[in-house]
Amino acid sequence: MSSRKHRGCENMENFCPVTRKRSTNKNQVSVVGALVSTTKSSQYEHPSSPPALTFEALEEMGIGMLDSEESSSSALSAIALAVSAGVTSDDNSNETTPYASVPRMAHKLQHTQRLSMGATGDTTLDIHAVEDSLAMCRQSAENLQILAQTKRSALCSEGSSNSNSPSKRLRNPLVAVTCNNQIDGTALLNFQPSTSRLAQGCLTKKPSSAQITTRMIPRDGFFVFRTPAMSAHISSGINYFERLSDEILLDIFKWLPKKTLLRMATVCRRFNRCSHDDSLWTRLDLGLRTIRPRALEEIVRRGVLVLRLAQTSIQEPAFAPLTEAFTVRLQYLDLSMASITRSSLLRLLSHCRHLKKISLENTELDDSICAEIAKNEALEAVNLTMARGLTANSVRLMMKSLISLSSLNISWTDLSADAVTALVTHISSNVIRLNIAGCRRVLFDSHVASLQNRCPQLLELDLSDCNSLTPTVITAIMKFKMLEYLSVSRCYLIPATKFIELKSMPSLTYLDIFGMLSDAAMEVLEKQLPKMGINKFIHSSVSRPTVGTRRTSIWGLRTRD
Amino acid sequence: MHSKYWKFFIKRLFQHSLNKMSIIATESESVQLQTNDGVIHTVSIDCALQMCPVRNMIMLERQRNLYTNDVIPLPRVDAKNLRFIIKWWSSVQDLEESVGTMGKKQLIQLLTEENASHDFLMQVILAANYLQMKDLLKATTHVLADALNECESVEEIRKKFNL
């Protein structure tokens, strides 16, 4: 091992990848060999991976190459270091450049790892493969610094990495320097330390990166990752965790709170890999917090299914520019009262295609955002209360494509007359709960009539504050055969006497008519409608994620596990 | 006649109410298990049936109406671990409450009695994994997770567990 290092030293003074290429041409090394030894010395519990790796890697060699030629990256050059360092005798005849092969290997490593892990996300495994190769090179302080920076950048940029082009992920040394500075300020979640157990991965990465930028001289604490030789020197005992399989490790991690889970990710590579497993990150509650730039991207890339971001403020830029398309698994998203810019919201929603329930209460929307919402055809519940920026076009688009929609709350959104018409003309017939309160002067009886035509099975209808409704609307409402809840609060044009007609609706159980009758009149009405629950609900609960005082669940789903 | 009894038996097994088995199985005998260091343990049948490999073997035997009294080998379990597991199981059985809550406490108690190290705990985890005893696995992993949780810093974890 030491001899390897020495040989590597003399070749690699600078890190220019071009020189790298030229000089390493002669070392058609077993990058394979290098990596294999890495895997063997690493702590992975993959008995089958080294042979699988080499075989697949060899297969890969002949196949087309990554665009590693273009990308200049310190990690690649570092890998080249590894390549030259590991001058072993078994020279496999590979025409391909070592660079490309190593990231490819990384890809393969990731594959084998993925297989043995079961369902794990793409992004996490790359880092480890990269780190593996990085671990090979330990020659000079200078090398190490840059390596560490790359690792940091790789770690921190895991959110923006993509398994399909591993080479692109690695950045050139200069970028690594600036990237590091960037990273210090970005992708860090600012959380109130004492109160909650939740934090984001970047936070735990911050201390180590801070370490790196301040100390340029290698010291004992400088090495964030260790070579096997170093480990053997430092730790004297047997590592019992080695015997446990990854699944058992996952079982152990399942008990840990998120904050500890993140700390685990920094303990060793294997823990890092396991703690990033998707099954541990299905639910996340980040309500009332401030999310630093880029953190949101990492959050959604972890594979979160249930995400509560109520009242969070999401700082710009929430997504790294120019990331390739990745699909986010998010299904239940609560962004009520979140402060998020339109562009971030657009980016976020452009990746979501599996949403089932979404709440965008009090957020700013525009046509493109609504178009993205519309693309989630599995949406069942949409809450757009007090959202700003809805136009007739966006309403029409959404209504037309959201055919599985069952509950919609579009109250107080300042809809125009056109928008309301679009709404009632195109609304899906599966809707059973609808809240269009607050459409002052734009909602007319005719709209209710066409609504009745479209959705005869409506169970819950809230028409509060639509003060253009006249007594004839009651006739239209009577046609809803299954209606259980009706609210026409503050529709001042409807006289009290009309409500007595509602008696003939067998299914109607609750009637809300706040602000319409005097107490005396109310008493009379109550006598007339003995079985009706009158004025029982002040707040509508249609599509609302959190109703009442429940705060740790959205739409009945736990947000903390 | 045995097969009739056995069909009952299988039904119960699948209902996970293994406690009832001791009532049904009139042949409430004990089973002999041999661990990988050659020691032969005699365990009562309801304890043995908790362990999946043993259970599968017994079920296979009974299905085919072979009644051998051979020793069942457990190649992946040590004698010490098996004794510990049996002790845990019997102590959990005695309690009336759910295994989930009490299992862990019992486990901690037993572990401190033995002055067990983390190594021992991990061996128990591996044994529980091999024997597919879910409750024991849950309890042991919970204990280990607590140990991980308690460590203040990453360095401490590394030192403690020699990572």
Shape of chain B: elongated
The strand count of chain A comes to 15
User: In the CATH classification, which architecture of chain B applies?
Assistant: 2-Layer Sandwich
> Would you give the CATH topology of chain B?
Potassium Channel Kv1.1, Chain A
Structural class of chain B: mainly alpha
Itemize the secondary structure elements and their pairings.
The complex is a heterodimer of chains A (561) and B (163).
Chain A: H1 2-11, H2 17-24, H3 31-41, H4 49-62, H5 74-85, H6 98-117, H7 122-136, H8 141-156, H9 166-169, H10 173-185, H11 201-214, H12 228-234, H13 246-253, H14 258-264, H15 269-275, E1 283-285, E2 290-291, H16 295-301, E3 306-308, E4 313-314, E5 332-334, H17 342-351, E6 357-359, H18 367-374, E7 381-383, H19 392-401, E8 407-409, H20 417-426, E9 433-435, H21 445-454, E10 460-462, H22 472-478, E11 485-487, E12 510-512, H23 519-528, E13 533-534, E14 553-554, E15 557-558
Parallel strand pairs in A: 1-3, 2-4, 3-5, 5-6, 6-7, 7-8, 8-9, 9-10, 10-11, 11-12, 12-13
Antiparallel strand pairs in A: 14-15
Helix pairs in contact in A: 1-5, 2-5, 3-4, 3-7, 4-6, 5-6, 5-7, 6-7, 7-8, 7-15, 8-10, 8-11, 10-11, 17-18, 18-19, 19-20, 20-21, 21-22
Chain B: H1 2-14, H2 21-24, E1 30-35, E2 40-44, H3 45-48, H4 52-63, E3 72-74, H5 79-94, H6 99-114, H7 118-131, H8 134-150, H9 154-161
Parallel strand pairs in B: 1-3
Antiparallel strand pairs in B: 1-2
Helix pairs in contact in B: 5-6, 5-7, 6-8, 7-8
How would you describe what is shown here?
The complex is a heterodimer of chains A (561) and B (163). Chain A is an alpha/beta fold. Among the domains of chain A are: 242-280, Monooxygenase (Up-down Bundle); 286-558, Alpha-Beta Horseshoe (Leucine-rich repeat, LRR (right-handed beta-alpha superhelix)). Helices cover 42% and strands 7% of the residues of chain A. With 163 residues, chain B is mostly helical. Chain B has 9 helices and 3 strands. Chain B has helices spanning 2-14, 21-24, 45-48, 52-63, 79-94, 99-114, 118-131, 134-150, 154-161; strands at 30-35, 40-44, 72-74. Chain B is elongated and about 60 Å long. The chains are: A alpha/beta (561), B mainly alpha (163). Chain A binds chain B through residues 43, 235-241, 243-245, 248, 251-257, 260, 263-264, 266-268, 271, and chain B through 118-119, 122-123, 125-126, 129, 137-138, 141-142, 144-146, 148-149, 154, 157-159, 161-163.
